[in-house]
Write a structure and sequence with these properties.
The chain is α/β, with parallel strands linked by helices and 304 residues long. It has 12 helices and 9 strands. The strands form 2 sheets. Strands 5-4-3-6-7-9-8 form a 7-stranded mixed sheet. Strands 1-2 form a two-stranded antiparallel ribbon. A hairpin with a 2-residue loop joins strand 1 and strand 2. Helix 3 runs antiparallel to helix 4. The longest helix has 17 residues. The chain is elongated and about 70 Å long.
Length: 304
C-alpha cells in the first residue's frame, strides 16, 4: 500500500504547491523544451491548470487554498511529469503559440516553431505587400501555424494539410476553437496531393526534419511525440526535398515558401550549395527557417 504524500496534509495554498512543484521538478533533472525552459514555469502551468485559472491570473490568488481533490490532481501531474517524462502540454491538453491557446495531445507535436516570429512580423519583408488570399500549411499537426496565419491574414482562405488522421482531429478542434470554420479547412493529404490545383500566395511548413542520429539521442520527453511528426529519413530531409520539388506548382507567381528544417539546415545547404536559401534571423532565437520565392523555386527546380 502506497504511503500518503505528506503534502496533502501539510500544504494548502496554490503557491505552496507551486513551490513544491519547483522543488520536485528541479530534483528530477527533467528536460524543458515544450513551451517552457524551467521548472518554475512548468509548476505554475500545472497547478493553475488544476485550479482552473488562466496563466496570467492576478498573483494575489496564489494565497487561495486548494481542495483535497485538487491537491491530489496536482501531485499526480507532478508524478507523471517526473516519472513518465510527459511534456507538460500533453498533461494539461493545451499549448500556446503566437500568444494563442491550442488543444494538444500525443497525436501532434507540441507547438514551438520559430515560424511564430515570422507570423508576428507579417512575413515582412519577404511578401513585399503581396495581398494574401490563400495560405497552405503543410504538415500542420495541431494547426497552430495555419490558424495563426488565418488570424494574421483575416480575409485569407487557409488549407491545413497533414497525412495523419489523428493529427487532423486535433487540428479541426482548434479550427473550431478559434471560430475559423468558415475559411480554414483541414485536409488529409500526402503533401500537395489534396491541393486540387489550388495556388497560394504563401506556403508555410514545419515538416518532420529530425535526422536518425538526432532522434536517437533526444531526451525522453520527445519520444512521447509522434515519430511521423519528427523524423524524415537518415538526414532529416526526405519530406523537405519533396516540398522543394513540388511547391512551385502550387504557388502564385509572386508567392513565397517558408520552411523550418531546424538542425538539418547544415545538411540542406550541403545538399544544395548553389540554391540561394534565405535563412531567417529569428528574434526569439532558434535556427533553420528558410524562405524562397516562387521565382527562385522555378529557377533552381532542376537541382531538386
Amino acid at each position: 500500500m502506497s504511503q500518503r504524500d505528506p503534502a496533502l496534509d501539510q500544504l494548502h495554498s496554490i503557491k505552496d504547491f507551486i513551490r513544491l512543484g519547483v522543488s520536485r521538478l528541479r530534483a528530477a533533472d527533467l528536460y524543458y523544451g515544450h513551451g517552457t525552459d524551467n521548472a518554475w514555469d512548468e509548476a505554475v502551468q500545472l497547478v493553475l491548470h488544476v485550479a482552473g485559472l488562466p496563466w496570467n491570473v492576478d498573483p494575489a490568488i496564489q494565497d487561495a487554498r486548494l481542495l483535497e481533490s485538487e491537491k491530489a490532481q496536482v501531485l499526480e501531474l507532478f508524478r507523471r511529469r517526473i516519472e513518465e517524462r510527459i511534456p507538460a502540454p500533453y498533461l494539461i491538453g493545451e499549448a500556446w503559440f503566437c500568444e494563442l491557446p491550442f488543444y494538444v495531445d500525443e497525436r501532434t507535436l507540441v507547438p514551438r516553431s520559430p515560424i511564430a516570429d515570422l507570423i508576428r512580423e507579417g512575413f515582412e519583408p519577404w511578401l513585399n505587400e503581396t495581398p494574401v488570399a490563400r495560405v497552405l500549411d503543410l504538415c500542420t499537426g495541431s494547426g497552430c501555424i495555419g490558424i495563426a496565419c488565418a488570424l494574421l491574414f483575416d480575409d485569407a482562405e487557409v488549407d491545413l494539410v497533414d497525412l495523419s488522421a489523428g493529427a487532423l482531429e486535433v487540428c479541426r478542434r482548434n479550427i473550431t476553437r478559434h471560430r475559423l470554420d468558415d475559411r480554414v479547412q483541414a485536409i488529409e493529404s500526402d503533401l500537395f496531393a489534396g491541393a486540387d490545383g489550388r495556388r497560394y500566395q504563401l506556403i508555410v511548413s514545419n515538416p518532420p526534419y529530425v535526422d536518425a542520429n538526432d532522434y536517437n539521442s533526444m531526451p525522453p520527453e520527445y519520444h512521447h511525440e509522434p515519430v511521423l511528426g519528427l523524423t524524415s529519413g537518415e538526414d532529416g530531409l526526405d519530406i523537405t526535398r519533396r516540398i522543394l520539388r513540388e511547391a512551385s506548382d502550387y504557388l502564385t507567381a509572386d508567392g513565397l515558401l517558408v520552411v523550418e528544417v531546424g538542425n538539418s539546415e547544415v545538411a540542406l545547404q550541403a545538399a544544395y550549395p548553389d540554391v540561394p536559401f534565405i535563412w531567417v534571423e529569428l528574434p526569439s532565437g532558434g535556427n533553420g527557417v528558410f524562405v524562397l520565392s516562387a521565382q527562385e523555386l522555378n529557377e533552381y527546380r532542376d537541382r531538386f
